[in-house]
Design brief:
By secondary structure, the protein is an all-alpha fold. The protein contains 13 helices and no strands.
């Protein structure tokens, strides 16, 4: 583990410092939005959004290499498709009734399929594992700027509308009776979740994005029932998982994304076990 800290100080290892910075910045959004997702129990919706993101990544790669749009980055396509998917999935979840699971499942599959088709149509070879499982070590300075901007947007909206989101998450009917436009704020919550998913995809990939979105908040919820406390703890856990996972992956020469998820899963299971043995919570 000490090798990792010495490596951080090495001027030639700027990629490690960028990876650590990205994980640190994104952890605030992960903790905040993960808390809302776990509380509202919309993890399956976030999963569908995450898989639709792959369609946007494939489309961006296709447009960039087939049509010469050199400025277009896969993360731009991911962000656009995630926000569109959030709106569609939000409307479906509110209007589809009994067919909700089937429609969302179809969108989940079609998003992945579209991404693969676009990549097949794109000239050249692309390493899909970096998109499916993430590669935090490929983070660039431009990515850091984008992560920081999206982070500020998520945090600002969460602070401004915290009480509204809390009402929508815990008692949607009561929120409606209080005059809150619950459909609008529900869609907004999903859009914010979509943005957070895009940040996560860059770190841990499409396949494992739901684990990293929910595990910090789930771990925090074993220690407290208060929403604000859970958020703070979830941010702390997210930081812990990112830092320790990155350090372990460097030390053991393993992929960073899977190690981060493994650390998160083990900590959550450990806390869950302790919580069963000592069921005293705030």
């Amino acid at each position: 583990m000490t090798d990792f800290f010495f490596a951080l100080l090495d001027p030639s290892n700027s990629f490690l410092r960028l990876a650590l910075m990205a994980g640190t910045l994104a952890s605030f959004s992960f903790g905040i939005m993960g808390t809302y997702v776990v509380t509202r129990r919309i993890g399956y919706l976030a999963g569908a959004i995450a898989h639709c993101v792959f369609g946007g990544i494939g489309a961006a790669l296709y447009l960039k290499h087939r049509w010469g749009l050199a400025w277009l980055d896969p993360i731009h396509g991911a962000l656009a498709s995630a926000m569109v998917a959030a709106v569609i999935i939000g409307l479906v979840s509110m209007k589809a009734g009994e067919r909700e699971d089937s429609i969302i499942g179809a969108l989940w599959a079609v998003g992945m399929a579209a991404g693969l088709i676009f990549i097949d149509l794109t000239p050249g070879y692309f390493e899909l594992s970096s998109y499916l499982f993430g590669d935090i070590l490929l983070i660039s300075g431009q990515d850091i700027v984008l992560v920081a901007v999206l982070d500020v947007v998520i945090i600002a909206l969460a602070v401004i509308f915290h009480h509204t989101f809390q009402a929508v998450c815990f008692d949607e009917e009561f929120a409606t009776l209080r005059g809150i436009n619950t459909p609008f704020f529900y869609i907004l919550l999903l859009i914010m979740t979509a943005v957070t998913v895009v940040l996560l995809v860059r770190l841990v990939g499409v396949i494992m994005v739901i684990a990293m979105l929910t595990l910090p908040a789930a771990a925090a919820s074993t220690l407290s029932r208060r929403l604000s406390t859970i958020m703070v703890l979830a941010i702390a856990f997210s930081l812990l998982f990112n830092w320790s996972g990155l350090a372990l992956s460097y030390t053991l020469d393993l992929s960073a994304g899977p190690v981060i998820i493994s650390v998160a899963g083990l900590v959550y299971l450990g806390l869950l076990t302790l919580n069963r043995l000592l069921p005293t919570r705030e």
